[in-house]
C-alpha cells in the first residue's frame, strides 16, 4: 500500500502517513464514489490533523478523495467521497443550449458555476448533438450526470497538485477483449442481481410550472393569440383590458375564444392542445402525464416524480427508471488499468449451476481495496442501455 497524503484545499501538503490498516475506494463511471481509510490508534497525528483542518483531500497513488468525516473507536477511520462529489456543492442558474454535444453542455455547466476551483480538461468531442434546458437553479452535479448518462458517457474530477485546481474531464469507455467468467478462470465470488422495484413502463406524472407570457390586451387581442394552438400549452397571460365596451348607455361584450375576459384575470392553457381558459387566480404549477405505456392493466407502472421539472427533465428521469441488472465479482488474472478500466465494455458470462448468461457489460464501478490480508480490485458490471 502506498502512502496516504493529506492536502488542504489550497493544495498544501499537510501530512504523509504510511501506517495504513486498510484502504478502500469505490469509483463510479458517471458519478461520485466513496472511500474509507483506517489508521492505527497510535497515529495520533491523524486526529490532530483532522480536528484542525476542516477542508482536506487525500491522495494515494492514482486515487484521491475528499474527506467528509472520521470516526475513532478501535482505530481511526477517515471517510469521504471521490472529488466528483464537489460538484454537488455548486448550483447552476437556468440555461438553455442546443446544437452542441453532451460533453460541451457538461463543460459549459461546470465552467459556469465552478470555474473558481475547477479547470476543464482536454476536450474530446464526445457525444451526439442535442438540446438541453432548465428553467430553474439546479445542482451542478445533477445536471452533469443527467446530460452525460443519456449518452453513456462518464466523467472524472481529479486534483492537479501543480496547477492547484481540480480537473474536470468527460470520457467514454472502450470495447475491451477481456472475458470475465468462472469457467474461464477469470472471475470468482460472482453475484448477479436484478432489481425492478423502481421500473416504470415509460410513463408517469410530473409537476411543471406555467410559463408567464406577460400581459394581454383582450379587447384588441394584442399580442395576437389563437385558440387550440399547442404553443399555448402550460402558459398564461395577465388580462390587461375587459372585452366589453359602452355605447349609447349600453354595454356590449366582445368575447375572445368564446370567453368573457375580465381585466386582472388570467388567460391560461392547461392542456397539450392549447385550449384557453379563464381564471381569477394566477396559475402556478400543474401535474402533467407523460409517456407512451407499453403495457396495460396491472402491468402498466407509472412514475410519480418529485420536484418541479421541465418536460425534458421528466422524460430523462422516466427513461432511467428501468430494470437494472448488475454482476459483481472479483476479477482474476485480468489486471485493472491494463486489461480493462472504469467505463470499458467487457464480455461477461454469468454462471450459476445450469443458469448461464453471456453479455457485454459496462464496468460502471470499481472497488479498490487493501488490507493486511489481501488487496485487489472488484468491478461492478452493469447492463448496457438498449
Entry summary:
By secondary structure, the protein is mostly beta strands.
Structure report:
- The protein is mainly β and 386 residues long.
- It has 4 domains: 4-81, no CATH class; 87-171, Phage tail protein beta-alpha-beta fold (3-Layer(bab) Sandwich), CATH 3.55.50; 175-196 and 323-383, Elongation Factor Tu (Ef-tu), domain 3 (Beta Barrel); 211-283, no CATH class.
- Helix content is 11%, strand content 47%.
- It is built from 4 helices and 29 strands.
- It has helices at residues 44-52, 102-114, 140-149, 311-320; strands at 4-8, 13-17, 22-28, 34-39, 56-60, 63-72, 76-81, 91-92, 95-101, 118-120, 129-134, 138-139, 154-160, 165-171, 175-180, 187-195, 203-209, 211-216, 235-239, 244-247, 250-253, 266-268, 277-279, 285-291, 303-308, 324-331, 345-352, 355-371, 375-383.
- Strands 1, 2, 3, 4, 5, 6, 7, 15, 16, 26, 27, 28 and 29 form a 13-stranded mixed beta sheet that branches. Strands 18-19-22-23 form a 4-stranded mixed beta sheet, with no helix packed on it.
- α2 packs antiparallel against α3.
- The chain is elongated.
- 29% of the residues are buried.
| Unreliable stretches | none
CATH fold label of the largest domain: Phage tail protein beta-alpha-beta fold
CATH-scheme architecture of the largest domain: 3-Layer(bab) Sandwich
Percentage of residues assigned to helices? 10-25%
Number of domains: 4
What is the count of DSSP helices, taking H or I runs of 4+ residues?
4
Radius of gyration: 28 Å
**What general outline do the C-alpha atoms trace?**
elongated
Class from helix and strand fractions: mainly beta
Quantity of strands, as a count: 29
- In the CATH scheme, the class of the largest domain would be Alpha Beta
Proportion of β residues? over 45%
At the fourth CATH level, what is the homologous superfamily of the largest domain?
Answer: Baseplate protein-like domains
Mean pLDDT: 91
Distance between the termini: 40 Å
| Major β-sheet profile | 13 strands, mixed
Amino acid at each position: 500500500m502506498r502512502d496516504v497524503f493529506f492536502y488542504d484545499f489550497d493544495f498544501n501538503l499537510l501530512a504523509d502517513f504510511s501506517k495504513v490498516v486498510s484502504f478502500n475506494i469505490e469509483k463510479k463511471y458517471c458519478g461520485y464514489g466513496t472511500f474509507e481509510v483506517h489508521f492505527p490508534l497510535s497515529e495520533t497525528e491523524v486526529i490532530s490533523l483532522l480536528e484542525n483542518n476542516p477542508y482536506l483531500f487525500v491522495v494515494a497513488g492514482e486515487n484521491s478523495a475528499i474527506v467528509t468525516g472520521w470516526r475513532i473507536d478501535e482505530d481511526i477511520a477517515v471517510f469521504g467521497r471521490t472529488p466528483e462529489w464537489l460538484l454537488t456543492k455548486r448550483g447552476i442558474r437556468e440555461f438553455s443550449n442546443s446544437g452542441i454535444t453532451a460533453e460541451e453542455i457538461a463543460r459549459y455547466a461546470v465552467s459556469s458555476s465552478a470555474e473558481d476551483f475547477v479547470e476543464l480538461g482536454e476536450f474530446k468531442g464526445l457525444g451526439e448533438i442535442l438540446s438541453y434546458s432548465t428553467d430553474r437553479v439546479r445542482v451542478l452535479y445533477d445536471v452533469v450526470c443527467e446530460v452525460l448518462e443519456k449518452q453513456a458517457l462518464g466523467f472524472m474530477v481529479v486534483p492537479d497538485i501543480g496547477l492547484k485546481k481540480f480537473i474536470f474531464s468527460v470520457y467514454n469507455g472502450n470495447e475491451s477483449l477481456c472475458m470475465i467468467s468462472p469457467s474461464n478462470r477469470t472471475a470468482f465470488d460472482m453475484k448477479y442481481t436484478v432489481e425492478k422495484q423502481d421500473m416504470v413502463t415509460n410513463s408517469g406524472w410530473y409537476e411543471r410550472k406555467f410559463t408567464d407570457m406577460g400581459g394581454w390586451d383582450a379587447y384588441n387581442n394584442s399580442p395576437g393569440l389563437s385558440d387550440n394552438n399547442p404553443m399555448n400549452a402550460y402558459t398564461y397571460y395577465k388580462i390587461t383590458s375587459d372585452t366589453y365596451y359602452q355605447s349609447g348607455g349600453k354595454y356590449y361584450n366582445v368575447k375572445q375564444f368564446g370567453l368573457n375576459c375580465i381585466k386582472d384575470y388570467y388567460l391560461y392553457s392547461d392542456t397539450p392542445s392549447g385550449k384557453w381558459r379563464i381564471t381569477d387566480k394566477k396559475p402556478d404549477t400543474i401535474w402533467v402525464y407523460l409517456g407512451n405505456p407499453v403495457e396495460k392493466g396491472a402491468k402498466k407502472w407509472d412514475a410519480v416524480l418529485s420536484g418541479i421539472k421541465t418536460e425534458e427533465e421528466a422524460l430523462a428521469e422516466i427513461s432511467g427508471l428501468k430494470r437494472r441488472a448488475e454482476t459483481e465479482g472479483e476479477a482474476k488474472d485480468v489486471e485493472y488499468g491494463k486489461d480493462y478500466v472504469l467505463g470499458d465494455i467487457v464480455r461477461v458470462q454469468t454462471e450459476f449451476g445450469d443458469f448461464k448468461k453471456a453479455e457485454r457489460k459496462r464496468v460502471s464501478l470499481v472497488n479498490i481495496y487493501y488490507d493486511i490480508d489481501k488487496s485487489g480490485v472488484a468491478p461492478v458490471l452493469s447492463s448496457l442501455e438498449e
